[in-house]
Amino acid sequence: QQQVKQSPQSLIVQKGGISIINCAYENTAFDYFPWYQQFPGKGPALLIAIRPDVSEKKEGRFTISFNKSAKQFSLHIMDSQPGDSATYFCAASDEAAGNKLTFGGGTRVLVKP
Amino acid sequence: ETGVTQSPTHLIKTRGQQVTLRCSSQSGHNTVSWYQQALGQGPQFIFQYYREEENGRGNFPPRFSGLQFPNYSSELNVNALELDDSALYLCASSIDRAETQYFGPGTRLLVL
């Protein structure tokens, strides 16, 4: 059972554009929603995270929007740069279950110069 | 501060063999979680160790087993390797099972 669904699978954006990645979850017990960035041959790196009591969180060029009633959340990358070209994963965890991360399938982002 | 390290970086095994992967957690972190990442997919939770005890397990068979040592480093053991075990194996460390987890670079396992 895929508990976190991520879309699109891949994305091409011009330098300076906005990248938008969407995720939907099923388990209402999830209480922490991080986004990870992964470069080829590397482990995932925590980018930004949000809790369900907040509708938006911004850190630099990265913004998470969270819609608790729809059970959806999204990552916006503003002013996309070639160095942002990577695979992005949304994830979710439940503190009562020990915070084991459930990941989405990933989105490969390519930023063209 | 040293981050999460894993060894070896790459490994090639044949079907039926056994493998041991190692993870050193970030300084001060007492929780280690292991994940399997098949090519082109998101990581899948294998199990978590907290203060040397297994603290939850994902949908993986018993031939996947682990250990955590007093210094909080950890091992993942896989017996009777199958072709589908070919993947990137990631470990992540955290403090007291907190939600913020830091991943190592992974071990790429290829089973032939």
Describe what this molecule looks like in 3D.
The complex is a heterodimer of chains A (113) and B (112). Chain A is mostly beta strands. Chain A is 0% helix and 52% strand. Chain A has no helices and eleven strands. Chain A has strands at 4-7, 10-14, 19-25, 33-38, 45-50, 56-59, 62-67, 72-77, 86-92, 102-103, 107-112. In chain A, strands 2, 4, 5, 9, 10 and 11 form a six-stranded mixed beta sheet that branches. Chain A has a five-stranded antiparallel beta sheet with strand order 1-3-8-7-6, with no helix packed on it. In chain A, a hairpin with a 4-residue loop joins strand 7 and strand 8. The model of chain A has no long low-confidence stretch (mean pLDDT 94). Chain B has 112 residues and is mainly beta. Helix content of chain B is 0%, strand content 51%. Chain B has no helices and eleven strands. Chain B has strands at residues 5-7, 10-13, 19-24, 31-37, 44-50, 53-57, 64-68, 74-78, 87-94, 102-103, 107-111. In chain B, strands 2, 4, 5, 6, 9, 10 and 11 form a seven-stranded mixed beta sheet that branches. The radius of gyration of chain B is 13 Å and the shape is globular. Chain B starts with a strand and ends with a strand. The model of chain B has no long low-confidence stretch (mean pLDDT 95).
